[in-house]
Amino acid sequence: LYTIPAGDTMEKFTSDFTDACSTWPPAVNAGLTFVEALIEPGDFSGKNADTEAKIICGWTDGTTFPTFTEDVAASLGATPA
């Protein structure tokens, strides 16, 4: 669960996170294949849909599924909630 950057709309954060995740240089440079950028607005009870989101940035090497969620989120100014 992450708090999106102050001043961002959920739509802008969703777009920015998807773009950054799907082209994340460390994953691309490692030869990984993009799997998904998942953004679900709101906390675990569905509240705070304008300021918090459950997010995942997933890639694969064909066997394992490393995630870059923390690094991508930090690069955009999002913080763990």
Short structural summary:
This protein is α+β, with helices and mostly antiparallel strands and 81 residues long. It has one domain (2-80).
Please name the defining characteristics of this protein:
single chain; 81 residues; 3 helices; 31% helix
Task: Describe, in plain words, how this protein is organized in 3D.
The chain has one domain (2-80). It is of the alpha+beta class. The chain is 31% helix and 27% strand. 22% of the residues are buried. The longest helix has 13 residues, at 10-22. The chain has a 4-stranded antiparallel β-sheet.
The proportion of residues forming helix, as a percent range, comes to 25-40%
Overall geometric form: elongated
Radius of gyration: 13 Å
Sequence of secondary-structure elements = EHHEEHE
Q: How many DSSP-defined strands?
A: 4
Question: Which regions have little confidence, pLDDT < 50, spanning 5+ residues?
Answer: none
Largest sheet: 4 strands, antiparallel
Write the SSE topology.
Elements: E1 2-3, H1 10-22, H2 25-29, E2 33-41, E3 52-60, H3 69-75, E4 79-80
Antiparallel strand pairs: 1-3, 1-4, 2-3
